[in-house]
Model the fold of this input.
Amino acid sequence: MTSLTLFPGPYASVAADAIILPMEAGPSGPRLADAESWPKDAAQYLTSALAAVGATGKPGELVKLPAPDGFRARAVIVCGLPETKAKPGDPTTPDQAEALRRAAGEATRAAEGYEAVALAFPASDDHEVGAIGVGAWLGTYRFDAFRTTKKPALPTRLIIAGPAAKIPRANDALARASVICEQVTNGRDLVNTPANKLNPALVAERVKELAKPVGATVEVLDEEALAAGGYGGILAVGQGSINPPRLVKVSWKPPKVAYTLALVGKGITFDSGGLSLKPPKAQETMKCDMAGAATVLGAVLAAARFKLPIAVTAWLALAENMPSGKAQRPGDIITMLDGTTVEVLNTDAEGRLVLADAIVAARRDGADAIIDVATLTGNQVAALGERIAGVMGDSELREKVLAASRDVGEPLWPMPLPAPMKSELDSSIADVKNIAGPNAGMLTAGLFLERFAGKTPWVHIDIAGPAFNTTKPYGHVPEAGTGWGIRTLITLLRSHL
Done:
C-alpha cells in the first residue's frame, strides 16, 4: 500500500532512495524551483550538472542525477515544472494545482526501482501540498496483477519534504489525498481487470469487500430479484450472457440525513455490442465499459471514509452484453422499471437501458438529486476527444459538478439537451426507441435518460473518452483505466452540495 508522509527536516537527511526536485526554465538555462532550501554547494552542483547534460527546464522534462555528497538519498530526479505563481502569496489556481499534480506524477512514474521517494516541491498552502500528494501517488500506479514477469517496482513510500512539510494543515491535506487516491486506485483496478475475471457477480462480491472497512452498506439484487422487481432494461441487456446481471446499491448514511444524492453508474463488465456486434478492434478495450460503476463506487466509499454529513447512495447497474440464442434482438420491445416500453433498435445502445432502470430505482428510493456516470457514447469521443467528458442536465447541479471538475483538473464540457430533438426518439410501436439517428448521439442518449429522471434534479456525465487512456501515460494519468471522475465526485460531495 502506498503511503504519504511529511519530513520537515533538511533534504540531505531525508531517508529516501531518491529526491524529486522541480526545475523551471530560466533566461540562462534551468534553475532549481526551490534553490534556497538546498545547501549552497548542493544547489551549485545540481545547477552545473543540469547545464552539463543540456537540460532546459521545460515542463515535463526529466533528468536523473547522482545525489550530492552528504545526502542519504542515492539519486535526484529533476523534473520540469511550469512557473506556478506570478508572485509569492498569490492564491493557487486550478491550473497551477494541476501543473503540480502532473509534474509530481511524471516524476514518480520515472522513479522505477526506488521504494522511498521524497518530493522537494515548493508549496505555499495546504491545497498545493494536497495536489503534490495526489499527483505523486497517482503517478505510481501500475496494473500488473496478471504479469508473471514484473517490471521494476514503483515507489510505495512518498515523502513530502522540506518547507512544504511545515505548512499548516499539511498533514490533513495528505490524509485527504490518501483517501482520494485509494479510491482512484480501486477504480482503476476494477476497470483494468479483464471481463473473464470480473463479471457482474464478481463485481458485487468485490464491492462488499471494499465497503465493509469504511462502514458503507451493500444490497445486491440478483437476476431473480431483478425479474421480480420489474427491471426490464437490466435484464434485457444481460440475458444474452451466461453471467447474469446484478444491481448493487451501496449506501453511506450519517446519523441525521437532510439530503440524499444518488450516483448511478453504468456497469457493463464487457460490451460486445450484443447482436449489433461491435467490430473486433472496438471490443479490445470493452472491459472498460463498467468505468461509470467504478466511479460512483469510489465516490460513495470516500463519503463513508470522510463521514460526510450527507447521505450518498451509489447504484451500480451491472450486466454483460453478449450475443447468444438468448440475447435481445434489434426490434424487441422491453418494459422498463417505470413501465415505459422501449423499442430496442440497436443492442449496442445498451448502457442507457441499464442506467434508466437504476435512475428510476434511485428516484423511488427518495433521492433529492441524481448524477449518472457512464462510458455511454462514441459520439462523446468524436465531439470532445479522449480527455474531456460531456455533462448535461439540471443547470444548477451541473454547475456544481463543473466547479468540482475544474478544482481537480478533470475537464468537463457542458452540453445541451435540445427539446426539439426528443422527437427523434419517438417509436411508432412503443413509447420510445433506444437510439435516434446518426447525429448528436451524445445528446439523444442524454434525452433518453432524462425522461426516466422525472422531476428529480439530474445530471448525466458521459466519460467514454477520458475513462480509458489508449495512449502512453501522461502526467499522473496511466495507460488504460484512469479512474477519471472519482476525484470530481468526491470534491463535489465534500462541498456538501
Summary: The mean pLDDT is 96.
